[in-house]
Amino acid sequence: MAVFGAFFATFVVERGNAPEIFDIARKTLHLGIGLTNTLVLLTSSILVVLALGALRAGARDTARSAVIGAMLCGGAFIALKVYEYYSLVTAGHGVGENHFYLYYFVLTSVQLFHVCVGMAIPVFLLTQTRRNELGENRMAVVEGGACFWHLVDLLWIALFPLLYLVA
User: Whole-model pTM?
Assistant: First the structure.
């Protein structure tokens, strides 16, 4: 969070130094994709919460379905972000065009990296849905993984308005 906080602060300062460039560049982003990614990640968080509740209640099938849904959401986020990168780069909006795109690609690629790493969490959760019983220590590990997934979502909730909405 501290690293992202530093990134956010730097972005805001740079935007203050060149507001017209940042606003013009911001308008080239795919707002629909950004909004869809926001909804996808929020849905994945809800599914992880449902999976945890189901695991606690012993409803393994419900937990498994919720985890698979969260995995699909993570995959959708990755696919949409890759498509958005491809669209921007083929339109000539790469890292070297201006500071907005530099920060956009750095911030969102770090986010994307965390989503990719975080995809191990639903995979782990899926393995736990096959266990007959989860002890207190194992459940603590599962909950810690879920917290990481929520942290990744929280970072996107900060990134989305910062990059896509704030003029």
Answer: 0.89
Cβ atoms of 124 and 131 closer than 8 Å: no
Determine the average pLDDT of the residues in 160-166.
94
Instruction: Give the chain's radius of gyration (CA, Å).
Output: 18
CA angle 139, 140, 144 (to 5 degrees): 115
Distances in whole angstroms, Cα of residue 47 to Cα of each of 91, 109, 122, 150: 35, 24, 10, 11
CA distance 49 to 55: 10
CB 44 within 8 A of CB 74: yes
Q: Which residues contact 11 (CB under 8 A, 6 or more apart)?
A: 103, 107, 162
Q: Would you say the C-alpha torsion 97, 1, 162, 48 has a positive or negative sign?
A: positive
